[in-house]
């Protein structure tokens, strides 16, 4: 596994004799950094057969349309709902949600005043017939040596990938950054807190050895057990979308 570390997002590249897979891309403005990191790792865009999008957010799907243009054979794997949301080109607000903590809400509102790139938009991507859209009507989906698991809560279209060596690529269904802001291994924003923790409970039944998040360093699944239900909705400010 090769980690591609972008401005705020970790992407992961998994080699597989049946097709190499990239998990997530970064922001659209991460393009030069992405190309440099890939070059340093000796990976060219044409080497990527599958691109798994953990969900539609701008810091995950910013380079999808670019990569699909550069590599017409690329197969994008995503939740069917993600395919719909990623065609709109912005982070969905219609599902509501809450900040994980008051500190995170404050931190974000200060930060976005200084970051001109903070638009919550991305170049839209329109899925083609060769892409793999998953509806999970029969639960998790086996794919190559992996299992693709629906992990809703952060967003309704969130998915994760478990490899047969016990590595779980979790997207934003958990995170390991800004712990001082009271995140308790959650991402800054959660659309549905009870689904979010139901996802963690389900993950804790699986043979997971190590968790690789899109934000922050990898961690042990024990952290999910320890921080399960640590966030209380009564202390989580409502997300108003601005
Ligand atoms: Zn996200």
TrEMBL record:
Ranges for domain Metallo-beta-lactamase: 8-215
Keywords noted in UniProt: Hydrolase
Coiled-coil ranges per UniProt: none
Pfam families named in the record: Lactamase_B (PF00753)
InterPro entries: Metallo-B-lactamas, NDM-1-like, RibonucZ/Hydroxyglut_hydro
Protein name per its UniProtKB record: Zn-dependent hydrolase, glyoxylase
One MF annotation (Gene Ontology) recorded for this entry: hydrolase activity
């Amino acid at each position: 596994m090769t980690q591609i570390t972008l401005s705020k997002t970790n992407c992961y590249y998994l080699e597989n004799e049946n097709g190499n897979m990239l998990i997530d891309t970064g922001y659209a403005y991460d393009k030069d950094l992405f190309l440099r990191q890939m070059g340093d790792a000796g990976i060219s865009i044409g080497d990527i057969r599958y691109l798994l999008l953990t969900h539609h957010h701008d810091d995950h799907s910013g380079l999808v349309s670019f990569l699909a243009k550069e590599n017409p054979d690329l197969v994008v794997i995503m939740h069917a709902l993600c395919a719909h949301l990623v065609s709109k080109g912005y982070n969905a607000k219609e599902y509501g949600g809450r900040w994980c903590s008051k500190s995170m809400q404050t931190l974000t509102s200060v930060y976005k005043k200084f970051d001109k790139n903070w638009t919550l938009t991305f170049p839209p991507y329109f899925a083609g017939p060769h892409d793999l859209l998953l509806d999970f009507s029969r639960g998790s989906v086996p794919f190559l040596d992996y299992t693709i698991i629906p992990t809703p809560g952060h967003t309704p279209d969130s998915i994760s990938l478990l490899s047969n060596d016990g590595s779980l690529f979790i997207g934003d269904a958990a995170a390991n950054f800004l712990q001082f802001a009271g995140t308790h291994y959650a991402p800054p924003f959660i659309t549905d807190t009870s689904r979010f923790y139901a996802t963690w409970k389900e993950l804790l039944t699986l043979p997971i050895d190590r968790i690789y998040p899109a934000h922050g360093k990898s961690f042990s699944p024990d952290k999910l057990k320890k921080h399960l239900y640590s966030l209380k909705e009564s202390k989580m400010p409502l997300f108003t979308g601005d």
